Amino acid sequence: MKWDLLTTSKLSTTEIQEILKSASGFARGESWQPKNRLFISNLFFEPSTRTKTSFEIAERKLGLEVIPFEVQTSSVLKGETLYDTVRTLEAIGTDAVVIRHSADNYFAELEKGISIPIINGGDGRGHHPTQSLLDLMTIQQEFGSFTGLKVAIIGDILHSRVARSNADALVRLGASVIFSGPEDWVDIQGLPQGCEYMEVDDAIREADVVMLLRVQHERHDGKLLFEKNDYHNRFGLTVEREKQMKKESIILHPAPVNRGVEIADGLVECSRSRIFKQMENGVYIRMAVLKRALENRNGGREDVNANQKWQATY
Amino acid sequence: MKWDLLTTSKLSTTEIQEILKSASGFARGESWQPKNRLFISNLFFEPSTRTKTSFEIAERKLGLEVIPFEVQTSSVLKGETLYDTVRTLEAIGTDAVVIRHSADNYFAELEKGISIPIINGGDGRGHHPTQSLLDLMTIQQEFGSFTGLKVAIIGDILHSRVARSNADALVRLGASVIFSGPEDWVDIQGLPQGCEYMEVDDAIREADVVMLLRVQHERHDGKLLFEKNDYHNRFGLTVEREKQMKKESIILHPAPVNRGVEIADGLVECSRSRIFKQMENGVYIRMAVLKRALENRNGGREDVNANQKWQATY
Amino acid sequence: MKWDLLTTSKLSTTEIQEILKSASGFARGESWQPKNRLFISNLFFEPSTRTKTSFEIAERKLGLEVIPFEVQTSSVLKGETLYDTVRTLEAIGTDAVVIRHSADNYFAELEKGISIPIINGGDGRGHHPTQSLLDLMTIQQEFGSFTGLKVAIIGDILHSRVARSNADALVRLGASVIFSGPEDWVDIQGLPQGCEYMEVDDAIREADVVMLLRVQHERHDGKLLFEKNDYHNRFGLTVEREKQMKKESIILHPAPVNRGVEIADGLVECSRSRIFKQMENGVYIRMAVLKRALENRNGGREDVNANQKWQATY
Q1: Closest listed residue to residue C53, CA positions, set C106, C98, C3
Q2: Contact residues of B toward A, CB < 8 A
Q3: What integer pLDDT is reported at residue B220 of this predicted model?
């Protein structure tokens, strides 16, 4: 068995709780390092500050050797497949890879043939499991448990990598989920179990957790579906709407934030905001996920290139 | 108080001397390392070999963990502000940042809100304090003191990041400064105190230190104001002019050199040239500046994300 | 004397055997680290996953500090020469450099003036000595010796960085070489000593080692000289041709592979294939070459910037 982390939907609630517990240990200052020097590489085929740097720091804190991989200077430019790129990294001694790629389910082509663990750093419009886990960690840190919590997820549900997998995990963990946002961006007829749709003002008044999604201009082929101000007034967390939030409610956003669009500029660092706390937690989640993958890998690289007839003795 | 290094003009002469002394210690082989593992990131929004690599080596020599930041793959491409980018790096555990940016005074927007030290690696046409300090170190190394020295700064004074701040620091330290170069590139009416203008031939005959500035084609919007040879003959350090220099005088250049423009090809590594010595000193200056910032930081990151209600105990 | 590695043709067979022996030691788990902290930089002016990452892992395994060098953000963009770039890296404390560059014999301009060792990671259509050495290591590992072996090199001999230097080294080590491939890509009239030309089917039947070369679209100015299928059927290792290979024969390819062009998709990881074994061996070869360069460097950097009049004492 290989301890990839590809999606949260494949994790049982027990597994999720184990990862959150391990991350919480790292947050309290616990440490873990592998016995041998291990090599890891981060393959980011899409731009990202937060996720890539967060993984880098997590890797360094675990004492891993991080092998730079730059898409711009790689053989991918010569038409090499993702499989051959990863297989190459495995052959030369990389012990695990983190991958972000614009193709949904890019990992399907890797499951056969690749023996080292794969951590999904985001696939197309599919999944972003470490983001989901850090959202869960931040909520649990705040409220202690998920039972009975109401979490409003507001914005472009259809194109979000985390909305659906967050909703799925939250419901399994005992929370209820409210979707809100432009009607074109929510499949109101096909709401998952445990989820309901509300108007933005209702959602914000009801929720213990207001999770805003980024308006991803870059995923709508450059077409602006809303004027900045228009979106903000109709679906954003305005200064006025924030005043309607329950006393203990908190604000989450996966970042990067479009200030003045999803959220008023002045609220990004207000006392309810856990936006930068999420980023901090992201490092601990990634440490937990990497530890899980590396601690459990099956014997590792020794077996990978075993197809030689005999070993030279010289 | 935060121990940024943004400009040399904010440093007192005592502070300058302290940094030079610390750098000189590193040049003699002294070492310093922080007690805990610290993380640093170099945000270079403009191209640079020398400065970035020099910082990297300085950081490694101090035992810092350098977190790669690649502009090309960062969320800056998604329109994230500089503030949010730096705030993110702070949230995920970076202990200091080095920034080079094309905007003058880019750091103004960071002074409120960012708690980690910022080292300026060059801002637009504004400042480049570690370059100034390494120039000062190389002069002091050569002559022991600044008192009574004549330093000629030749070239594009108006567009230079270091000409004015070098002149300011040199005059405060007791030297006198001669500006020279094309009249369009020197504000002859507005010379700072302690500075005078001379024709190139006179400047070179008078000076103890001949500091050539780079002709920065890339900052003149691609317009070539001079033919290469024309500039060299009229304002460059030609083979003939070098013969007019005083016996003990030395040559400085911030590099990269346009060979055959600011300086004759054959003089780049002549016995008077301290051009590569400057680069060596740059590493020691950066070690001193980083040590100063990290040694003195105020309690650091513990306080940054303190806006949570209670800590999960699990 | 400086222990560069620029071409294999400059290495005696004794030197080649010494490098192979050292690499074989690393393959068996031996280790070596320099006494002091050493800095190295990889200057890759052409894209490459395999070679660059392989050097990175080799460097980390030797405990070297790897200083990132990104062409895209370097002063090369400001027109700096390769000499000045390398001289700068030397001045700021880099102890060795690995260079890949599109210009044949780029190192000619570096031999005078640069004191640190240079490892050639590939020059234009010229040489790629660590690739040649890893090919030799993989063959020796398989057959114990080179004497009497027949090695078929198939494909674009004329544009290959490794075909001619491999042929030269193999013949000197006692093997015989068969060239094959499109007639336009082989200089049949000018075959080196010890080499003969054969039709593909004959070459594959005769050879102990079938070494396929990559069809380098990017080196033919984008002109496709063959349809994919056409090349595969006429010159590639098809499923049918593989069945004609001798029982113990093996397959090599420098990668990245064009699957379905030089080699049938299903054969890339077949039991005869040593393609990923080559990559693994590449790390050991690079460790051996780096050890050789660093162990023997002549006193090193102390002398490089010695042109100062006196040392400041403060």
Answers
A1: C98
A2: 37, 39, 41, 65, 67-70, 72-81, 84-85, 87-94, 113, 304-305, 307-312, 314
A3: 60
